[in-house]
Amino acid sequence: MKDILPAEAVRWQRLEASYRAIVARYGYGEVRTPLLEATELFVREIGADTDVVAKEMYSFERHEDRLTVRPEGTAGCARAYVQHNVAAVEPVSRWYYFGPMFRAERPAKGRYRQFHQAGCEIYGDPGPGCDAELIDMCAEIVRALGVKAFAVHVNSIGSGPTRARYRDALRAYFEPHRAQLGEDSQRRLDVNPLRILDSKDPRDKELCAGAPTVVSVLAEDDAKHFDGLRRLLDELQVPYVVDPQLVRGLDYYTRTLFELKITSGELGAQDALLGGGRYDEMIGHLGAKKPVPAIGFAMGIERVLEVSAAADVPRGPACYFAPLSEAAHGKALALAKRLRLSGHWCEVDLRGNSMKSMLRRADAMHAALAAILGEDELAKGEVTLKSLQGGDQARVAMDALPEAVARKLAVATGAAEKATGD
Ligand code: HAM
User: Fold this and answer.
1) Is the C-beta atom of 76 inside 6 A of ligand 1?
2) How far apart are CA 9 and CA 137, in angstroms?
3) Is the C-alpha dihedral spanning 393, 394, 395, 401 positive or negative?
4) What is the pLDDT of residues 221-254, one digit of tens each?
5) How far is ligand 1, taken at its centre, from the CA of residue 118, in Å?
6) What's the whole-model pTM score?
7) CA 94 – CA 70 distance, rounded (Å)
8) Ligand 1, from 303, 304, 306: best to mutate by most atoms within 8 Å of Cβ?
9) pLDDT in tens, 353-396
10) How is 379-412 classified by DSSP, letter by letter?
11) What is the CA radius of gyration of the chain?
């Protein structure tokens, strides 16, 4: 679990703002659910034999309640969707969330015990058009956040009868090798052989590589859905790979599965930036009056920040006030107050340091402008306004400072945009 100090938090804010702006254009509204849910919700929906439920949940009992600090967002959103009977109000709902999740995993690069997800869930659309639109949006989000080297992996796990057939096929494949499997996988062979495919045990990995894939047992309807998804991804010009090994580690999925993986190797084994899929059975399972199809994804914020260049653009104060004597402190504070009221970030240096030292600090903070108040400026009711990028400076009447700052900032922003080609 990590602290996020202010210099780092700025990157988080930028990422969150880009994310919110993109999903708003697709019509998603924000949902905020509690960090605590009944343990039973996760056990039933994610599955008792998954690593998340069997090994990683922070669960406790208080009074009569068995509670868990959420390891993911999908189950809580679905619980809220059913509890508030949202299906009765609108046929299709698009929700997004942003927040901390908790899993007691073995910490590694890109894997934390408190981490953050930005996710989306769509209720009421059976796809495959909405699946394609969602996957395309995920690629847009990741690109907008400055990640260049990634690949979209897709697969289908089929619906209920397909999964039952697939379980039988896996059991038949693994049974003759039972003794070679790790202890966890031997137990899973009896209860949920699909979960053997998530195993990180090297003994299991070799066997898993030769296991039958679900595509070979897909029912006709499932295959049609998957074909439709691929055709639409082609039409949207989203490059993707069909990855028959992709099963994802949560039991609730039906049909479409997808992941966006970083291809630069920077994150080692934790290469999934985001993952998601369809879960058409969960809403009915949770006691809704009628079943509602659903699909969603969640993106790991820490992982994106580790590989994203876009979040690094430094941003500093609009104006750094450098009063050269104590007599100028009051004027500097009053002028900064006026600028702040017009929406500008201002810093006032009241440490009594030399001009050189104050300007060095302004540079280090990436300030756009410095406002210098010396003896002569005070006497004439003026300020020296210095552009810290261009170096040019001019005397400005104190009363005209807000307009002069706005003008200079517009010039500076225009030049920066020209330089980056925006
Ligand atoms: P997930 O694959 O378990 O899916 O997690 C989604 C993403 O969260 C991962 O791809 C990864 O980037 C990030 N993540 C997961 N665990 C950690 C960790 N310990 N440390 C850092 N990052 C992590 C879900 O959670 C599903 N609820 C996604 C979904 C939404 N499916 C349908 N709707």
Assistant:
1) no
2) 25
3) negative
4) 999 999 999 999 999 999 999 999 899 999 999 9
5) 9
6) 0.88
7) 21
8) 303
9) 999 999 999 999 999 999 999 999 999 999 999 999 888 999 99
10) HHTEEEEEETTT--EEEEEGGGHHHHHHHHHHHH
11) 28
